[in-house]
Amino acid sequence: METNFKILVLFYSFSGHTAELSKYIAEGAGEIEGAQVEIKQVPELIPNEFFESKPELKKIRESFANIPVAEISDLTSADGVAFGTPVHFGSFASQLKQFIDQLSPIFIKGTMVGKPAAFFCSAGSMHGGEEAALISTMIPLLNLGMIPIGVPYPVQGEGSDFDAGSPYGAVFVSGHKGDKVLSEGDIKIAKILGKRLSAMSKVIKYGCISFPECQFLSSKYE
Ligand SMILES: Cc1cc2nc3c(=O)[nH]c(=O)nc-3n(C[C@H](O)[C@H](O)[C@H](O)COP(=O)(O)O)c2cc1C
């Protein structure tokens, strides 16, 4: 029996940290047999001129410019999606919101209903709004019928100071100057979240064959 399924790791990143975290989400997702994992970024909305006067930032952005830009079809064809964002003023980035806001036809068709979703973010400070950003990202995806996958205790809290991850998703604190690197705990949590997303996506896609009641999760309710 074929058991291939598709996981999309979709992110916006202004200065590279969320892009970096996405690699580990994808790595974890790839640990489940049959997973076909793709990393894509949503389109930038800030005009090019903004970056022209910021050579350092421009260079950083070139380091992840090779990651393809997503189209709506990448999202609709995926069996599970991880959404990543930097924390921008205590919430998730408008670039990701703009991408999601194109989904009203998808919402009406119910295409994303029953598909698992996971969330990850990067913030400058430990209390800069990570939880608010993760939960606010979750809200539109709940509207689309997706099933959120979190990071349950005791896995969250990995890291030397019991500081990695959160119940709501994977989190990386890049620091005031943005010069921190991912800790072992950050990487571990990101991989576990990706693997949980992948496992649940496979269960929902193929487990329903032998467990018909499960089809209730991903069918239109009439
Ligand atoms: C417009 C803007 C708003 C930000 N707002 C916050 C914030 O509310 N809280 C916080 O901790 N960091 C904030 N930051 C810092 C970023 O969240 C942080 O640098 C993050 O690691 C960037 O991820 P990225 O490299 O993927 O863009 C902000 C950065 C920008 C550019």
From TrEMBL:
Residues 7-173 form the Flavodoxin-like domain. Coiled coil: none annotated. GO terms for cellular component: membrane. It holds the Pfam family FMN_red. One of its GO terms (molecular function) is FMN binding. NCBIfam families: flav_wrbA, PRK03767.1. Belongs to the WrbA family. This is NAD(P)H:quinone oxidoreductase, type IV. The lineage of its organism: Bacteria, Candidatus Daviesiibacteriota.
